[in-house]
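Hi R.,

Here's the chain you asked about this morning:
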Amino acid sequence: VRLVESGGGLAQPGGSLRLSCAASGFPCSVYAMSWARQAPGKDREWVAGINRDEGDAYYADSVEVRFTISRDNAKNMLYLQMNNLEPEDTALYYCGAGRWVVDADSLAEYDVWGQGTQVTVSS
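And the predicted structure, written out as tokens:
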């Protein structure tokens, strides 16, 4: 079971980035999936989650409207489209998968996390 994130980088305030997460070793269609992030000196925080069937999506208040989570179960991929980026979005972004997630924003309910991809928002 492995998750590999990509797509991070440097963006200017107001800019956009699209993160991808490739799942291998398991069919991600049976897992709820999420994005979380961790800024230097801060705890990891949940950002967005999506249920198994590419249906309902959930967002932290700080990113709602600006970020969009999506998944392609046929390709075993998870995405995070980030628009109107702010310096406060600077962090290491992780994708996670959980087989029996009840509360999407509960990081402890996810079974596996990737190694992360760095997002830096700066002018």
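The first strand starts at residue 2 and ends at 6.

Let me know if you need anything else.
M.
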